[in-house]
């Protein structure tokens, strides 16, 4: 004996399918009216073209259809119908093309402003830029970084701001390895903390 499929039901000569939609969890009934081929266009027209339907897009029209009706490939049929809808073709622009044009225009404007700001800033900051023209063996003034220490009765603001050092290695145009004047390594220093004699 064949088992009866409980997701289908006939009521008053109409065929219903039980479908639970995630987007409509509070829908009164999960039973949707099965629509034969010849009536599907009429149902989509009712859910898309009517005044209260408002010529919505594919997704919203398909959800509207699915609230009350069922047939396989609803979304494909709705897409096909909306593609041929004259009202939508006349009044609605393709959102991707429009957004792409707007995005390109806005991006171009922002890019131009950023480039102008960069040029303006670089004109100011490049005047203060210290180019790394130091070589190995050069003697430089290195900025000191002392901390005050009350226990040792030492105040950093009274200490010298610079001390002599010797460049022992050029790591890049702006970073150098230094020794103090007694030959002890004192680490890597950026050119912003160095002055030539």
UniProtKB/TrEMBL annotation:
Stored Gene3D superfamilies: 1.10.340.70
Domain of life (superkingdom): Eukaryota
Integrase zinc-binding domain segment(s): 35-93
UniProt signal peptide: none
Molecular function terms, GO-annotated: RNA-directed DNA polymerase activity
Enzyme class, UniProt record, top EC level: transferase
PANTHER family on file: INTEGRASE CATALYTIC DOMAIN-CONTAINING PROTEIN, PROTEIN CBG26694
Name of this protein: RNA-directed DNA polymerase
């Amino acid at each position: 004996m064949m088992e009866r499929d409980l997701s289908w039901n006939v009521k008053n000569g109409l065929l219903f399918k039980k479908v639970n939609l995630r987007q409509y969890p509070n829908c009164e009934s999960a039973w949707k009216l099965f629509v034969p081929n010849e009536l599907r266009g009429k149902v989509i027209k009712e859910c898309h073209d009517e005044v209260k339907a408002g010529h919505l897009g594919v997704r919203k029209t398909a959800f509207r259809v699915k609230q009350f009706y069922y047939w396989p490939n609803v979304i494909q049929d709705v897409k096909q119908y909306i593609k041929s809808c004259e009202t939508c073709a006349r009044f609605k622009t393709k959102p991707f093309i429009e957004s792409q044009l707007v995005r390109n225009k806005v991006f171009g404007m922002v890019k131009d402003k950023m480039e102008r700001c960069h040029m303006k800033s670089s004109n100011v900051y490049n005047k203060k830029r210290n180019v790394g023209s130091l070589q190995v063996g050069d003697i430089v003034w290195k900025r000191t970084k002392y901390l005050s220490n009350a226990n040792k009765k030492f105040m950093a603001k009274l200490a010298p701001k610079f001390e002599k050092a010797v460049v022992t290695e050029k790591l890049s145009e702006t970073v150098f390895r230094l020794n103090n004047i007694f030959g002890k390594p004192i680490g890597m220093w950026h050119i912003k903390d160095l002055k030539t004699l």
